[in-house]
Specification:
With 135 residues, this protein is an alpha+beta fold. It is built from 6 helices and 4 strands; from the N terminus they run ααβααβαββα. The chain has one domain: 60s Ribosomal Protein L30, Chain: A (2-Layer Sandwich), CATH 3.30.1330.30.
Amino acid sequence: MKEESVDFYLQQGIFGHAETKPDERRMFLGSLRERALLALTKGQVSRNKPYQEVEQILKVNRQATVLLNGELSYASYSQYVKMANAAGCSFKVVNHHEAHSPFGLVIELPNAVNQEHIYIEDELFQKAFAHESVE
């Protein structure tokens, strides 16, 4: 066995498998920007009235998965769990203990779609990103 491959296997054993775009994955709840159809901030997910855009996207994209931020209470995102179930889509509650994403919900597809507009840029979104860029 070559010395490089031994070192490679040792590194994988110590640090785990190499992951592409780890910062992007932390931000988008384990997914990538290129797979996202919609991303809502924690504040947007927590508002009383759910966004109907979520329901519309799920009805058209039954293979989509709804990723929910585990830092939020179940009461905050339960309405989106119901929407996913009603549309026949799966959902996951994501807990990244060392990384804190500004997003509370990401709707992803299994493959890249490179959708240009994935944000609902209302006042709650603007408040969440007042001092930073999301792209």
